[in-house]
Design goal:
single chain; about 160 residues; alpha+beta; Heat Shock Protein 90; five-stranded antiparallel sheet; two-stranded antiparallel ribbon; 5 helices; about 35% helix; globular
Length: about 160
Amino acid sequence: MPSTRLWTWKRASNSSTAESAIVFEEIRVRILSDSDAVIARQKGREVALILGFSRTDATFVATAISEIARNITVHAGEGEIIIRSITENGRDGIMVIARDEGPGIADVTAVMRQAMTTGAGLGMGLWGARRLMDDISITSQPGTGTTVTMKKWGRFDEVGRLLED
């Protein structure tokens, strides 16, 4: 089974308004190949749109997932992408966690520089993901694998959303 996805969709309503929103706990995509990276990218974009992100920001999320998933397949061989909705300090957004148990990164600062590339993927890697997302943190040590946590905060600008349509 190349990828697994855990879906937990709930319909939640706010008693003070007539609106309801779709809330989910998380989606997990096992990354074993480039085709799994495509699935993770699609799911990230889909979730971002469901959460109310603009098409542009949803594409940023999808592209960042592509870069990180590609890093997993190239450098670790396998791993996992987890996609969650988040609320922190009154802001709503999307969080993407990428984990692997690969060789790890000896110098995280170096790989975050624009000039550092392995030649695989779009050539953006972690640096590009950092530019596309609002927050990124990396935990890695040689021999123990890598965890990349990325967040994108919703701007939910009605005028901007109307202009994109």
